[in-house]
């Protein structure tokens, strides 16, 4: 009887241990010592791939969208900067590339190869980002899972009821973008938030967003039904 009770206690202890392991964040694998720099008092990754993603996004963005992209990236980076446990679980290059390229689907350049007439703008952006990574000298070395995380983060960035339950990189990128609409959250202080706004102003941002949505409803209305657009 005593032996059976002891076995039950050991089994309960083992189950509790396994449950704890399942729900703890995965420990990060060894990563390169990425170069960094400071933008608006935020420490960000500064690899050649990130630099080229910035150049590519700038080429396909007007001034208002560009500032939104930068704010979104920096707000996400602040979420990570202020949360060491979360920072250890996130691939900073995946987060950066996804955030920087998340609005490629807003490219209004006439004849843009990014824009389709039959896909949601988020999917256009996700496909363009994936193509960019696969063409890039450093991106060619990426594991497919990293590419897929970028694709998912961009494709789902307007759907918090989905991205909140995805991988950490996907979730944090979505939260950083959402912060540009909601104000500071996730332990980001008002002072930190204002420093980003100072360097990348949100002037005319609401009107610009409305204009982009009207453009999408005009060029591909079937992709906008059931969304926040039309």
TrEMBL record:
Keywords attached to this entry: Signal
Keyword Signal: yes
Top-level taxon in the UniProt lineage: Eukaryota
Signal peptide: 1-19
The protein's name: Uncharacterized protein
Source organism: Stachybotrys chlorohalonatus (strain IBT 40285)
């Amino acid at each position: 009887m005593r032996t059976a009770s002891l076995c039950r206690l050991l089994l309960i202890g083992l189950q509790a241990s396994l449950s704890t392991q399942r729900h703890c964040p995965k420990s990060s694998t060894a990563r390169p010592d990425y170069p960094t720099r400071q933008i608006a008092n935020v420490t960000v990754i500064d690899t050649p791939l990130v630099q080229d993603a910035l150049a590519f996004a700038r080429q396909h963005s007007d001034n208002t969208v560009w500032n939104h992209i930068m704010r979104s990236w920096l707000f996400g980076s602040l979420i990570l900067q202020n949360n060491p446990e979360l920072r250890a679980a996130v691939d900073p290059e995946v987060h950066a590339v996804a955030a920087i390229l998340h609005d490629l689907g807003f490219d209004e350049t006439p004849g843009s190869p990014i824009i389709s007439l039959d896909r949601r703008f988020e999917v256009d952006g996700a496909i363009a980002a994936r193509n960019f990574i696969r063409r890039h000298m450093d991106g060619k070395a990426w594991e497919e899972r990293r590419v897929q995380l970028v694709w998912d983060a961009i494709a789902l960035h307007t759907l918090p009821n989905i991205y909140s339950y995805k991988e950490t990189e996907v979730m944090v990128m979505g939260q950083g973008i959402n912060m540009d609409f909601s104000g500071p959250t996730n332990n980001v202080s008002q002072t930190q938030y204002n420093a980003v706004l100072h360097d990348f102003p949100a002037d005319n941002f609401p009107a610009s967003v409305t204009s982009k949505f009207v453009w999408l409803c005009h060029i591909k209305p079937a992709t906008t039904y059931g969304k926040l657009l039309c």
